Structures are given as structure tokens and as C-alpha cells.
Amino acid sequence: MIGLRLDPIAFALGPITVHWYGIILGTAALVGLLLAVREGKRFGLSPDFFMDLLLFGVPSAIIGARLYFVAFKWEDYKNNLPAIFQIWNGGIAIYGALIGAFLCGYFYFRYKGYSFLRIADICAPSLLVGQMIGRWGNFVNQEAYGGPAEESFLRDTLHLPAWIVDQMNINGVFHHPTFLYESLWNLAGLILLLVLRRRAFLRAGELLMSYFIWYSIGRFFIEALRTDSLAFKGPAWLASLMDGLWSPMTLLFEQGYLDPEYGNVRISQLIAVLLVIAAVIIIIIRRKTGAASVRYSDPIISQKTGLPAGVTAEQAGDSAAGKASQPIQKGGSAGKPTEAGAGQESSLSGPEGEANTESAKKE
Q: What is the total count of domains within the chain?
């Protein structure tokens, strides 16, 4: 029996149809924004800073994700160019989105005068929560699913609710809900990043590297379950290496089908491995060379003003002037005479004080 498929269209406004895919991606972006704004306040960064980042970053990410996908599927689009813009039909790649978002972020942070790594650290949990929520858009569209799975495995072993199991029934065949696997993996990673960023040992840039490591590990193992992976024909030793690294998963799962005529190396798996290696090397080198001297919890300094984020030159000047106006005294507190001063003042009063005054005048 074929289960009921969820309608990918949420509602229509006349000739305009609003897809669940867009609503889910919008929700993912909003939650990520709120998370970044909340953490940014600890460092003096205004909500407008992240609002502007979102306005530039989301279109850049969508464009990057689409171009990345189209580039590896060019044979499907070269004779139908208008289809390139039909993003509501699916066909975006998360690594392309990251490339677009990071390119936008680099130039935006540089324009604002902040270190890329410091702001990217703040945004790392937002990336994970965005991916965690965004994967449910794949669920509604019935895309990015895994290979065939027994209905009993989904219902009785994984104990998934019927509305998820039914949606994983594509043309009468049940499939692994890889969107759900990745969403749950990202949820665990989000919790990990939120804990890590409160640890004193964490250095600048290391939360971003932790994001790359965590996400890439999960993506490597989940990607092999899918049947729609972008792939290329690589050397046999590389394909064997990827299969060997994934082999522990064979105890529980079988890899999704990958047409050998299309390719033998899944691109996302290869990128995941390279990202893990690169992130670990970057952390080690920065620690060894002293480049990671700044901690995550340290104030974020503007490269334009040399002041902490959120502090203007006027505020810094007022603070410095206020400190300079306070008299330098030994003992006591500002605005109160010292005990020695009080004693001197009292010694000038009374008959002895008057005599001392007259003597001082004669001298």
C-alpha cells in the first residue's frame, strides 16, 4: 500500500504558490539568526550586524548551493537553462551553500573591520541549526533519501511515526530517511558546540573547526546511504579508500546504489574527509605556532578602531577622561579626603592653627 505523500505546496496566493521547502529554509535562517544575535550580544555586536549578514549571506548561500549542484549536473541542465532557476524543485548542495556563505562572510567581516574567525565562531552553531532544520525541506520534497529499507525497520526498529514512514514510501518502496539521520546528527553537534564555546580552553577559530569536523564526519557516513549523490570517476585506490573508511557501517546498513557509469567516488564524502583532515591540521598548527593565542571568550577587537566591539571612540574617550579627572590619592576612595588630609586640615584650626598661620605669613 502506498502511503499518502505530503503536498510540497503549503498554500497559494492567487497565481503564487508557496512551497514548504521555502518556508522551512526561511525558518532555518531565522532560528540561526536568533542564535547568532544572542551570542553576539555577549561581545557587543548589535543585532543589525547579523541582520545585514543574513540579508547578504542567504542569497549568497542559495546561489552557491545551486551553482555547485548545477556544475556537477551540467548534462541535465545544458539543454534546459530555465530549469537552473527552478530551485523549488530541489537540487542544491550544502557544500556549495557553505562556499557562498563563507565568501560573503569574509568580505562582509572585512568591511566591518572584524576578524573572520572570531565572527565565524559565533555563526558556527547557527550553521548547524540551519542545516538541522533545513533537511526537513528534503523530507517534504521526497529527495535526498537513502537506499531501500524494510518497512519493519522504520516502524519497529527505529520506531518512527507513521507520517515519516509514509513519506519515505517512494513509488511503493520504503527508503532510509537520511534527512532524519543528518538532522539528528546536527542536533547532537549543536549541543556539543554550545557546550564547547563556554570552555576556557577554546581558542579563536576552533569552534568553526569543530563544526567542520563534526558535520563532515556525519556527512561522510550518511552520504553513502543516499542514492542521489554527486559523484565523479576517480582512481580505483581512492574509491577503495572511501569504501574502506565507510566499512564499519556495513554492520548496520548497506550503501545506496551509485551508478558506476556516473562515478565511483561520492564528492561529498571526499570533501568531508578533506575537511576533517584540514580542520585538525589547522588547529594543531595554530596551537604550535602561537597563532591561537586569542581565546574564544576574549573581547572581539575592531581592526578599524582597535576598540572592543560595541565601543565607539567617543565612549572610549569619555571613559579615559573620567579616569583622568579623578585625583590620585593615597588611601581612601575617590571624592573623600584621606585620613592624613583630614588630620592636616584639623591641625590648622584652633589657637595652634592660628599661630602657625601667623608664623607662616611672617616668613
A: 1
CB 115 within 8 A of CB 303: yes
The answer to the question of residue 360 being in a domain is: no
**Contacts of 208 by beta carbon, 8 Å cutoff, 6+ apart:** 117, 120, 121, 124
Q: Is 309 part of a structural domain of the chain?
A: no
Question: What whole-number distance in Å separates Cα of residue 350 and Cα of residue 285?
Answer: 75
Beta-carbon contacts of residue 83 (< 8 Å; ≥ 6 apart): 76, 77, 89
Answer yes or no: is 295 a known binding residue. no
194-207 tens-digit pLDDT: 999 999 999 999 99
Using the 8-state DSSP alphabet, how is residue 155 labeled?
I
Structure confidence by residue, pLDDT tens digits, 123-145 = 999 999 999 999 999 999 998 99
C-alpha cell at 183: 538532522
Residue 274 lies in a domain: yes
Q: Report the alpha-carbon distance of residue 242 to residue 172 in Å, rounded.
A: 31
